[in-house]
């Protein structure tokens, strides 16, 4: 049955009212970049059409979220990230596994890239050849819409990646460009000779200097150099062309209309290129992200933006925008993830504490998704000036860390692998699951029960420390059952070249079946995650809680205080393999017990 004319008119009024609130700013931002009124009209027409096509149940969700705009900051937010194919096979089968997610009281599910991609070279799905359709190996758009509906019914918001920086070289735009169409060559950065590419390369850092050196690739079909900052099969988009922006925003809104509630925008700092700069964190990036935020607020305000910004804390605040002109709702907490692993390896929390202090000093609108492991590597981007201040040699420390987590340092319990090792610079990153990096795999192989108990404590310590910080926690699927490294990737010729596949293995449903059996390794981790959720049910995890580190007068112990009108919660985390005592001072408004003793790798949560 078609809605009546008045109903349609009322619905249109909602969109028009939202657009009216933002129109002047949207026009200013768009014209500042493009000075193209026709393209602006195209953008606003597209937004209106997408709103008109938005399903009624999602419009109802929009209305609910407009009255609860900080829904994603609730203390009970609990997330997980996983690959559809590795977890269940495809989207239909994943929909049949929602009860497993509900058991964990998830409120947030991040599915790794599932839009149409080339096979096998797709960088884990981050080379997209069609931003508007699900990859046929995983299902259809209808399957995705059905899944998001079932997840919403279960109280779970779906997050999908939106790869803004580049397309696959097999995308229809890239195909047209390779066939000689100048219109689509202008969707990318294409050059007849090395003159301009050399100017870029002189100042733009390389993303993968070892596995994909340089920022340009020669294309035989086009007889041109094309910008490929990541891999040769990923072509950087030219956002100087307004058609690119309008088309990409249309694809983002299309995903929202399929029920996606969180868009993780990939490699955000890279999306604007400018000669003479390092093409990172440029002002135009923020203009584009702000326009994306405006488009969402007009068409689908239930949807939030999560940015992947692998930058120093001083660079992060800009990606949230301001309360008056917001950009991302939240960011991945990359720097804390790295510092947690650093603290675990050397039993020293000083760098971690400093990094937490810097993030806590950011404005109140800054919010983070905290995690230990994800689909990617651990890149050892520590605060080098702070390391030097503490008397730590940054390069020696980095080498110690990546060798430690590959198990090549005497006394290491970890089992992992290097990723993107660069002999010239001495740089490398680390791969492996949480359980294997914490020592569980090595203890199982050596049948060392005491070592296994210690490794489990390490694992739970890391999860509790991560979940106690400002923001909300996200597990990597398998962490809840201590899933180990998938070494069998080395037997697959399509996967062997990328060591990140070590922690991208099929979910072990046989091991998961042991989660309810007391005494099993899987049950210990499963119950540990339940304890973590119980911890976060405390009122001190309210969005407006005051969160700060505290001096424990012991470099091996991280102390964090959470305070609200309901009281004070103290978190103490011993990153050492020896018993430790935290000595705690009270201050005005915060009265703490004078001391607390902690066992090795103990996480102690105390109501004060």
UniProtKB/TrEMBL annotation:
Q: SUPFAM superfamilies recorded for this chain?
A: (Trans)glycosidases
Domain of life from the UniProt record: Bacteria
Q: Name one GO molecular function term.
A: amylosucrase activity
Q: Which residues does the UniProt record annotate as the domain Glycosyl hydrolase family 13 catalytic?
A: 81-533
Q: Which SMART domains match?
A: Aamy
InterPro entries, per the entry: Amylosucrase, GH, GH13_cat_dom, O16G_dom_2
What are its GO biological-process terms? Answer: carbohydrate metabolic process
Q: Which PANTHER family does the entry mention?
A: ALPHA AMYLASE CATALYTIC REGION, ALPHA-AMYLASE FAMILY MEMBER
Protein name (record) = Amylosucrase
Where does this protein come from, organism-wise?
Bifidobacterium lemurum
């Amino acid at each position: 049955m078609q809605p009546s004319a008045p109903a349609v008119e009322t619905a249109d009024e909602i969109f028009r009212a939202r657009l009216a609130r933002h129109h002047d700013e949207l026009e200013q931002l768009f014209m500042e970049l493009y000075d193209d009124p026709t393209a602006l009209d195209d953008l606003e027409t597209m937004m209106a059409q997408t709103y008109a096509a938005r399903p009624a149940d999602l419009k109802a969700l929009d209305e609910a979220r407009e009255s609860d705009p900080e829904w994603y900051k609730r203390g009970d937010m609990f997330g997980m990230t996983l690959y559809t194919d590795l977890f269940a096979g495809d989207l239909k089968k994943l929909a049949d596994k929602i009860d497993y997610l509900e058991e964990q009281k998830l409120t947030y599910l991040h599915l790794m890239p599932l839009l149409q991609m080339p096979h096998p070279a797709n960088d884990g799905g981050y080379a997209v050849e069609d931003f508007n359709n699900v990859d046929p190996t995983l299902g259809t758009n209808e399957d995705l819409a059905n899944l998001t509906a079932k997840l919403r019914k279960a109280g779970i918001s779906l997050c999908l990646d939106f790869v803004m920086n580049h397309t696959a070289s097999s995308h229809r735009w890239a195909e047209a460009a390779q066939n000689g169409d100048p219109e689509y060559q202008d969707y990318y950065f294409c050059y007849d000779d090395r003159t301009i590419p050399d100017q870029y390369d002189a100042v733009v850092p390389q993303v993968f200097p070892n596995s994909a050196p340089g920022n340009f690739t020669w294309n035989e079909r086009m007889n041109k150099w094309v910008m490929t900052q990541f891999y040769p099969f990923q072509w950087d988009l030219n956002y100087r062309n307004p058609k690119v922006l309008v088309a990409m925003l249309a694809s983002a809104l299309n995903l929202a209309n399929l029920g996606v509630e969180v868009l993780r925008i990939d490699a955000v700092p890279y999306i604007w290129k400018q000669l003479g700069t390092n093409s990172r964190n440029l002002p135009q990036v923020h203009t584009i992200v702000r326009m994306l935020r405006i488009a969402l607020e007009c068409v689908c305000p239930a949807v939030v933006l999560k940015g992947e910004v692998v930058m120093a804390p001083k660079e992060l605040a800009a990606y949230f925008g301001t309360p008056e002109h917001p950009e991302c709702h939240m960011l991945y907490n990359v720097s804390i993830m790295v510092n947690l692993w650093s603290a675990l390896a050397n039993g020293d929390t000083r760098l971690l504490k400093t990094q937490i202090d810097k993030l806590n000093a950011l404005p109140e609108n800054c919010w983070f998704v905290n995690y230990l492991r994800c689909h990617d590597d651990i890149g050892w981007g520590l605060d080098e000036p702070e390391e030097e201040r503490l008397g730590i040699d940054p390069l020696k420390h980095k080498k110690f860390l990546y060798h430690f987590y590959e198990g090549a340092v005497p006394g290491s319990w970890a089992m992992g692998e290097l990723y993107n090792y660069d002999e010239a610079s001495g740089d490398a990153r680390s791969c492996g699951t949480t359980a294997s990096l914490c020592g569980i795999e090595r203890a199982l192989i050596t049948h060392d029960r005491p070592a296994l108990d210690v490794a489990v404590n390490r694992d739970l310590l890391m999860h509790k420390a991560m979940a106690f910080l400002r923001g909300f926690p996200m597990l990597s699927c398998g962490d809840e059952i201590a899933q180990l490294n998938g070494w069998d990737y080395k037997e697959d010729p399509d996967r062997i070249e990328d060591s990140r596949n070590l922690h991208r293995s099929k979910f072990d449903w046989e091991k998961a079946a042991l989660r309810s059996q007391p005494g099993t390794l899987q049950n210990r981790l499963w119950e540990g995650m339940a304890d973590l959720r119980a911890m976060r049910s405390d009122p001190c995890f309210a969005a407006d809680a005051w969160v700060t580190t505290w001096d424990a007068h012991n470099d091996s112990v991280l102390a964090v205080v959470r305070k609200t009108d309901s009281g004070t919660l103290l978190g103490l985390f011993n990153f050492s393999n020896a018993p430790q005592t935290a000595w705690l001072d009270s201050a005005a408004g915060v009265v703490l017990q004078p001391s607390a003793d902690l066992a090795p790798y103990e996480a102690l949560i105390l109501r004060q």
